[in-house]
Automatic annotation (TrEMBL):
<keyword id="KW-0178">Competence</keyword>
<dbReference type="InterPro" id="IPR012902">
    <property type="entry name" value="N_methyl_site"/>
</dbReference>
<dbReference type="GO" id="GO:0030420">
    <property type="term" value="P:establishment of competence for transformation"/>
</dbReference>
<protein>
    <submittedName>
        <fullName>Competence protein</fullName>
    </submittedName>
</protein>
<dbReference type="InterPro" id="IPR016785">
    <property type="entry name" value="ComGD"/>
</dbReference>
<dbReference type="GO" id="GO:0009986">
    <property type="term" value="C:cell surface"/>
</dbReference>
Length: 143
């Protein structure tokens, strides 16, 4: 008698029905898609911000190398590559930047008043570096 009671209890335990399984699957898929799009945008924003920081660091390092070595060096962007003193950094797809060339003399000063503009479409942001002639410094504006 005890065995038949246990068998009856086991039979009452049921799994998900097909409808319940599909409902759980669709809710889970929706939540994953929602978070994945937010995560993708965050990754693009972080990649663009990291490139801006790397650009500023490379600008200052190139300027310092020119002053320390006592010979002119160059910082440029051509064909999607940021180039300076043997260092090449790929410009990420999240950044739109026009080609430019900055020459630092043996004192680490630049001899141009060019504007370097970067656009980050995903953030609807534009970063402009206005170079100051002679000092090698720049004025950064974000709009």
């Amino acid at each position: 008698m005890h065995r038949t009671k246990m068998k009856r209890e086991r039979l009452q335990i049921k799994g998900f029905t097909l409808l319940e399984a599909l409902l759980v699957l669709s809710v889970t898929s929706f939540i994953l898609l929602l978070f994945s799009s937010a995560l993708t945008k965050t990754v693009h924003v972080v990649r663009s911000e990291l490139f801006v920081l790397r650009f500023e660091n490379l600008y200052k390092n190139t300027q310092a190398v020119a002053a320390l070595r006592g010979h002119s060096t160059e910082l440029s962007v051509t064909q999607g590559q940021l180039l300076a003193d043997g260092v090449a950094i790929s410009v990420p797809n999240e950044i739109l930047i026009e080609n430019f060339n900055v020459n630092f003399n043996e004192k680490g000063e630049n001899s141009s008043l060019i504007k370097i503009q970067m656009r980050i479409p995903i953030e609807n942001k534009k970063i402009t570096y206005q170079l100051q002639m002679g000092s090698g410094k720049y004025k950064k504006t974000i709009s």
